[in-house]
Amino acid sequence: MSTKKKICIIGAGPSGLCTAKEIQENNPNIDVKVFEKSDAIGGVFSNCYEGLSLVNNPFLISFSDFPPQDNCDDLRMWKAKEYVDYLNRYAKYNHLLPLIFFNHTVQKINKKGKQWEVCFQKDGDIEIEIFDYLAICSGANHKARKTHLPNQEEFSGEVIYGGNTKKVSGLKGKKVVFVGLGETASDLVYLSRNLVRQSYVSVRRWPGYFIPRYHDNKPTDLDTSNIYHALSRDVDDSRLSFLTSFKRKLEYKNIALQEDKKIQNAMNHFNSSYKSINYLGPFRRVTTKSCGFIKAYLEDKTSLKPEIVNLEGKKVIFKDGSSVLADTIVLCTGNTFNLSFLPDDILDKTSSINKLYKYIFIPDVEHCYFIGFARPNLGSLPSVAELQARYLSAYLKQEIDLPNQEKMQQEILNQQQRFKWQFPVDFERITHLVDYYWYTRLLAKDLNALPKQWRLFFLDIHLWYKVNFSFLYPGIYRLYPHNAKSKKIASIIKKFPTMNKKVLFVETILYLLNKLSKLFSIK
Fold first, then answer.
1. Which residue pairs from 263-268 have beta carbons closer than 8 angstroms and sit at least 24 positions apart in sequence?
2. Which domain of life does this protein belong to (predicted)?
């Protein structure tokens, strides 16, 4: 009689939860254990700064087979606590809580033949357990990226990391310099704008392509479509660029609230400030919804400064020769993953996640998988992680075969070259960056989960229309096989809003012309 295999999933954030769910649901011959170092599920979302707001509407941040609601009445972006509440509902509904072992910190993992020896700390004691498979789901934002400023030891104020700033009340009455302008820095600047004495934001390089979170009280990720994201990635540097420019002007014209127009104007200014890269457009930049900074900037509550080049006492000196006095420097220079528990030879192979086949598999290491490390340029990481988890589950069930090592290495090289070209400014600093639309379709194709366009068109044209002309909802990869769950997802998709019809018309023309230009190789 065959015995069950065992898989150890490290991390009970969104990636770990969907991986546990998919494997438990589809692989009855595998026992699942999830080791979580904290006492709660949610990963970084359960241990973040007060007031954190997500950057996607609930349908984009949720899992495709567990919609946040049955209608589209409330599409505002959740606070972190609301998202953690959703994850708890997901875990309870899918019977995941008995699989999760809280306060279990993985210390070291060793390879033992074809199995894995996992050493973990529990209640102060070190224990060991043997597993057949490993799924690393601890995330790419596990710890703050170490940053050392010039002459930092000479600074007489305090230097703290933004990720460790749980409450902005600690900045009250201080002169603060924020370093970096990603979404964390932007949120902290905005949340502290009426508390600090003075606020400055120092930027060494531009964080990405600015997009606001809302237009007219609606999430901006509703103002897009699958048909638009099917365009060639160099469309902004092609003969069709006049149409993409016209589309964005049309979108701007449709903004009704004057405050939102001011925010969009400021973002347009910053997006076009770097003349050497502004031709790239949003398809070839990582997007960032740093509108908190923009709001504070427009309220004259913060000032933008260049790179810090020196520190003397409390004086902060910038590259343009200007200087300010500061009590606190808040480093918001990004996060990175911590895989120090892995064997050294595997650490070398995972120094960058783009060395993995489909960002999941190490070509020459069996039974060790990575879920939730690919960073999409837009959309949400949990929806990407869920597709990865489905892919892994299908592989473990032997429904998907992997190519040989040589072919995997070639595909890895191809994916690296693709994204180096697509993201020439951002790839080196975010090496696990992927194109959301391209990558999710890549996984969905192997899962036979892509929408069947002609079938949809003839059997349910309303659903076909919403699949193609509404926003990038991952539920479109759950329409098959037909069952009660897929019917519910289809009924929800039919309720989704679409953008202004004039904008959709322009996107349709763009799509058709882009298809023709590729067909006839017109640049």
1. 263/212, 263/291, 263/294, 263/295, 263/298, 264/212, 264/215, 266/294, 266/297, 266/298, 267/210, 267/211, 267/212, 267/291, 267/294
2. Bacteria
| Domain ranges across the chain | 5-142+337-446, 145-220+260-332, 221-259+454-523
How far apart, in whole angstroms, are the C-alpha atoms of residue 438 and residue 221? 17
Cα torsion angle, 404, 405, 411, 412, sign: positive
Beta bridge partners of 214: 219
Convert the pLDDT of each residue in 3-31 to its tens digit.
Answer: 899 999 999 999 999 999 999 999 999 99
Is-above-0.85 flag for pTM? yes
Which residues pair with residue 144 across a beta bridge?
335
Q: At what angle do helices 258-271 and 291-298 cross, to 10 degrees?
A: 110
What CATH code is assigned to 145-220+260-332? 3.50.50.60
- Joined tokens for residue 349: 């192979």
What's the CA gap between 284 and 280, in Å, rounded?
A: 5
Q: Which residue has the tokens 């692989």?
A: 27
CATH topology identical between 5-142+337-446 and 145-220+260-332: yes
* 61 within 8 A of 54, measured Cβ to Cβ: yes
Q: How far apart are CA 253 and CA 287, in angstroms?
A: 21
Q: Identify the three-state secondary structure at position 216.
A: coil
Q: pLDDT for 277-306, tens place per residue?
A: 666 788 998 888 888 999 999 999 999 999
Beta strands, E only, 102-162: 104-112, 115-122, 125-131, 133-136, 143-144, 158-161
C-alpha 481/C-alpha 104 separation (Å) is 38
Output the six-digit token pair for 522: 């017109």
How far is C-alpha 392 from the geometric centre of its chain's CA atoms? Answer: 19
Tell me how far CA of residue 294 lies from CA of 155, 304, 320, in angstroms: 28, 10, 22
For residue 145, what pLDDT is reported? 78
Q: Which residue has the tokens 């993985």?
A: 106
| Distance from the Cα of residue 518 to its chain's centroid | 30
